[in-house]
Structure formats: C-alpha cells, structure tokens
TrEMBL record:
InterPro entries: Gramillin-biosynth_MTr, SET_dom, SET_dom_sf, TPR-like_helical_dom_sf, TPR_rpt. TPR repeats lie at residues 274-307. Transmembrane segments: none annotated. Residues 351-540 form the SET domain. Pfam families: SET, TPR_8. It comes from Amylocarpus encephaloides. Keywords: TPR repeat. This is SET domain-containing protein.
Amino acid sequence: MAQKSNILINTYEQGPDKEQAVHKLSNSLAGELPTRNHDTEDLLKQHYQNIHHIEDCEKDTKTTWAKQIVIPIAYAPCVTPLDQLNQISLSDLKVETHHRGSFITATTITLPYNFSSTVTIIQEVSTVTAVLVLGFQDDTISPLPQNSTVAIKEPYVQLNENSDYVIRVDHPSDIAVLRGDDPAVSMIMQFVAEKKDIKPVEWRSEGDRAFLEGKYSSAIECYTQAIDASLPLEETIFTQDAYRKRAFANLLAHRYQAAKVDSLSACSGTALDAKAYFTAGRACYSLRSYSESKSYLEKSLELEPTDIKARKELNRILIRLDEQENGNYDFAQMIREQESKIWLDHADFTANVEVGMTEKSGRGLFTTKDIAAGEILMSEKAFCLPDKYTGDGPSDTVLFNLNNNSRTPKAAQPALFRKLVQELYHNPQLCKDFFDLDGGEYVRNGKEGDIIDGVPIVDAFLVECIRLKNCFSAPRLSRNLLKRDCPEVETHLTTATWLRASYTNHSCVPNCGRAFIGDMMIVRALHALPKGTEITHQYIAPDASTLFRRKGFPTNWGFECACRLCSGERESPDTIHTKRTDLAKKIKKEALKMAPTSKIPIANIRTVERMMRKLEDLHERSVYANLPRLTLVHPSIWLMEVYRFSKNYTKMVRYAIEVLKNFGFGDNIVDIDNNNFSMKWEGGIVNTEAFNSLVIAAEGYDMLGKSVLAEGCRAAAKRMFLVLAGSEVGIERFLPA
Ligand SMILES: C[S@@+](CC[C@H](N)C(=O)[O-])C[C@H]1O[C@@H](n2cnc3c(N)ncnc32)[C@H](O)[C@@H]1O
C-alpha cells in the first residue's frame, strides 16, 4: 500500500517484498519461541493506529489505495477433528511452525482491522495476547467481531518485526468462531439467563419472532431447539410445524440443502404438505435440480390445484428444463436480463459434450453427437463470478503469490480467489465438482471438501492453483466487443470460473468459440464437428510470434502447444521466425504508428505495402500454405482501414480479404470469375478483427456493385457473429444490410 508521509505507517500493510524478507528471517528461526518485546498495550495501540490509518485512507478520495493481498508459502489445512487435537497455550507457539496435532482457543479483544487482510488481537484466559491474521475474507459476514471466541486448529506462527509474531490462518476450515455478535448466540444466552426450563413452544415463538425480524440464523437455531426439546411421539404435529418453519427460514438464509431436507421432514400426509412441497421445490430450484424441483411442485399442486404461486413456479421450472434438455434459450430475454444483473437465472445445457481422456492433454471435452456449424455445444452458468469488470487502468487490489512470485494485474483475480474460498466454505455440496478440476502440480491432502467439525475442508492454496489454471476473462456482454461504429458499449472484463468449460483444452486454431451474456457462457462450434471430436478453444488469443507463444504456454499452463499452427510453424527455422518477427516489429514501429485516417501520406502507404510484401516473402509456401500468417494481420488491417478512409473500395476490399487469408481462411476466398465467395472455416481463426473485415468487405463489394460477393461476406459475418456474440440478437446493428 502506498504510504502518506503525514500519517502513521500502517504496520499491517507490509507489502510482498517485506513479507518475503520477513518470511526468510522467520525461516531462519524456525522452531524457536519468539522473543516477546511488545505487551498487550503496545499491540492494541498499534492495532487502532492501523484502523485509523485505513479510515483516513478511505476518506482521501484523491488517492487510490491498493489492497495488496499476499499468499504465503503453501501449507496444508488441518484435517483432524477438534476433539482429537490437544489444546496448547499461546505461550507455547513457536516461530515458523505448524503446530500439528494441537489447537488454541482465545477471545478477540479488539474491533477487526479489515483491508488487505483481516487482523485482530486475541487473548487467552491467561492474558497472553497475540495478533491474528486471516488470509481469507467473507463478504457475507463482517469478520471476527470483538468478543468472539476462536479455536484455531494447528496454528501457524510467523515472525513479525512489528508485533513479535503473528498467528496466520489461511484456510477457513482451520478456525472456528463463536461470534460475539451472533444474534442467535446472544439471544439464546439471554433467553437461558431469564428462564431455566424452556418449553418447545417457547422456543418456537422465539423462532417466529426472530424470523419476523429477518434474523434467519437465530430463527433456525430456535426452531432447532424446539425440535430437539419436543417429545418423540406425542408432538408429531408440533415438530412437523417446526420443521416447516425451519425449512422456510433455511430457504431465506440460502441454506438450500437444509431447506429441502426440513420440508420433506415436515410432510404429514395432510393438506399442509402443499406448503412443504412448495418450499422443497424452491430449494431444489436454487440447487439447480430442476427435475426434482418439478416433482415437488407437481405434488404441491395436486394438493392445492388453485395455488397461483405454485403454478407460476412450475412454469418457471418448465422453461429451465427446456433449456437444460434442449438448449432452447430466449437470448433476447437473456440480454435484457443482464442489463440489470450479472448473475442470470438460466439452466446449463451440456448434453452435447462429455468429459473424456485425450492422448496428450489429460482430460478434455468431446462431442456426444454430430454438431453443425454454429450449433450450441454447451451453455453454462458461472460457478463463481465476481462483479468486478475493469479496464486496463491500475488495479485497486493486487494478489501476490509467494509460491510462484506472481502478481495479478486485474482486480477481478483476487476477488475471484476470495469469492471461491467463501463459496466453497459455505456450500460444501459444491466442493466435489470444483476440486475435481486441474490444479497442476499442487500436492493435495485428499480430504478437500470432506466435512470435519461441521465445515468442509477448503485448502485455500489449492483453490488458487485451480483458479490460475481454469479461470476465464469475460465481458458482461460479448456482443459489445464487436463494437465497430457502435459507441455506446462498455468492454471491461471480469475473471470467473465455469466448471464444465474448464475441461476444454487449448488450441491456437480452435474449433469452437465462447461468448458471454452476464454470467452465462455460450459455446458454439465454428464448423461441423463429427461425434467424438475433442473440442478446443483459445485460452488466450495467440501472439503473432510463434517463438513468444512457445515460451508462454509452459510458463502459464504447464504444456507445450502442439496445435496445427504451433506444430506447423516448427517446420520453419527459428532464424526465419526471428527475421519475420523483427520485420513485423519494424513495420509496426515505423509505419503503423499513425492511426489510419484519410490524411496518411501516400508515400507512407506505399512503404507499408512494400514492407508487407517483404514480410509475405518471408513465409515459406511449404510451411504456410494452409496456416494463418499472424505477423501479417496487423499491416493488412491497417491498409484496409486506410483505404476505407480514402474510399478506395477496390483496395479496401483487397486488404479485407488479405486479413481473412492471414487469419487462415484460405488463399482462394474470392473467385471473381465465378462471382463466388467461400472461406475455409477449418483452420481459420474467428475473432473480432476477422468479423470486422467481413463487414468492411461486404460494404466494399456493395460500393463496387458486386452484390453477390457482398452477400457472401454478410453470410460469413453472420456465422461469425453467432459464435462471437452467442446469439444473433441485435446483429442488424453490427452488420448493416
Ligand atoms: C483448464 S485445464 C483443461 C483440462 C485438463 N486437461 C484436465 O485434465 O482437467 C488446463 C490444463 O490442461 C492441459 N492442457 C490444455 N491444453 C493443452 C494442450 N493443447 N496440450 C497439452 N496440455 C493441455 C494443461 O495441463 C493445462 O494446464
């Protein structure tokens, strides 16, 4: 975090360099008891100074204060239940040691500090105090309120120059918190203090009161007490009522699995079951189990056929089922929906693909039937997507990972990491599918997602490894990236995870394309794909230089790309690649520095044309006959634009077609003699620039009176638009007739 000279240094915002230095020092003292130079008063003073510092920063609207989240060197989460661990004291804790087999308990004695990480001061009964740092955060609750009791499993201690040492917790399952501000806890305490013998009906009334006040977790706790305190046989009606009420409280508290189980426990074979089935149906809908949801809604309607709400709910489920089973989506409605929210209410359609083993790339996705060009391969709702769409400006949060010395450039990446940890911790049923994804070389403990002490084991370091390998950058509406002459659009990106799509392997010349509408990803085939074909997409748009690409894939994803472009280009010697790349750079530096306008001197245009021919000559026919020639793409786009400005339609069309050739759509796209336009889709790279070239080529052929060729371009552009935007909705604004 940048520091201002007139305010105190914030000792909780050390930044990655300091953290790394302290880590080294800490390691050199591993296993020793830390020297205690700071007493409780010092720690408290420092803590509140840091809190005030953050408050000052937040008031300062002129400066951007970036959060610097540091992921320390990885360590495994505790997988032992609390009752099998031995309690130790804060004074037993040793530096740079994971106290395996042990736990500590203490009370938080300060308000939490909350910026790059959450920090508080904890105290033992024996009055020993220590600083506690949480490496994860939770937007759903304010972290670690004062007067909470914490139990920290297998605590890990790091040396710290400002506070002697800190206890660091990075896995949410390593800490249990009895929150000092939990209404359920305090209410039950008060209730218990006033009365000794509490009857089940009294618990239920307290539950009703809490429910009406919107305190759902308190209500759930009271209904649980009511159920537990009621007698097994005599109170059947009473307990069923309490289950029904707890089901509804669980539903509103987003605990859908519990809501479903409670609803079914509430069923008694009477007309009251209509309500229970309705709640079970809604819970299943939220769990995205639409067939099960339908069966409960039908049961509810059998008991109460005139219930309008249930009828409406059933209709909504039928729409989801049509999406899920047939891939029938109302895209216009979806696009309207994303204007007001990013998390959309739609089902996944994945029937056209299945996970299988590839020869060299681990698991991959394969088609389950013959697929036509443009057909939907799959459509999927994001597993986790943070609402952080940003451009290229400086990021307000940076994530440093000391395990690979990496630094994230965009704020959505740390936001996704934190949201993933939070979602997995609160929704254990999601763990299995998420932890099945590729996490690279990270050594797993094999208990990820297992429930221990009532919560799932969430290994935050593994979550980050999986995030790195499987996240996608996504605009809010892909259509907006095709923004030529369409100024209203916003092209910021976020980073998110889609589960099924994560099994797709990379190719620089892929056979499918993805598009986003809100948090829905729509994947379509670029050309016909027979049953059993492995589908591939581009992890990133390929850099024009093959030598550069060759280095990037092993570093970022741990593989060497052997797609037809990368392996084809290996046939050309590195010396020629270097010549090509150098010349492409020279063209860019000397000639393309001027944005294309009508005022470009003719001499400059000639220079670019001359250099471009030279660059073309550097492409061996034997290697590039059927391959994209990516270093030529930019000069050809520049020339197309320049001739567009000067209204030289013949040359504009010529260079538009060159762009398509250079993207790999074939050498004979236009057959002037036979008035025929046809592209070789297999082997071509579909992207915004290719789409724009088709739009410009159509415009040029129109101006030249060649309407058949113009129509050919439009038909191809339409096909690209479908893949790039996810649907044809709004195409008329991007592709004028
Ligand atoms: C998002 S995952 C794709 C699914 C993965 N193959 C699996 O088994 O779960 C990304 C990882 O798949 C592998 N991979 C993807 N594309 C590949 C390719 N073209 N060649 C070799 N390995 C590839 C790499 O290990 C990469 O880090």
